[in-house]
Amino acid sequence: MDINPQPKVTAAFYAQATASFAISLSAVAAGVFYLPVGGWIRAFLAIGVLYVVTSSFTLAKCVRDSQEVGTVVRRVDQARIDKLIAEHNPFKDPAGV
Q1: Is 45's pLDDT higher than 70?
Q2: How much is the pTM?
Q3: Which of 9, 12, 50, 87 is 20 to 30 Å from 79 at the Cα level?
Q4: Quick one: how far is CA 60 from the chain centroid?
């Protein structure tokens, strides 16, 4: 039986995700900094941006953890099935006959 390998994140995908995050966060930070409003409004917007960033990290972690739980359960079930198949002997006399 084939066991599906874990998908690997390539270095290019990791670099693209990191660059995308850095560019988007710096663009929003620059927009808040150069916005022609008072300091209190800028501070409020900056705190809002930080809140969105931290909550998106939390959401991504929750989704990842949920996916990993499903993967572990599938691996345990696969190991049980492999063990049953390895222990099965079709030529063994049935018990009680």
Answers
A1: yes
A2: 0.58
A3: 9
A4: 6
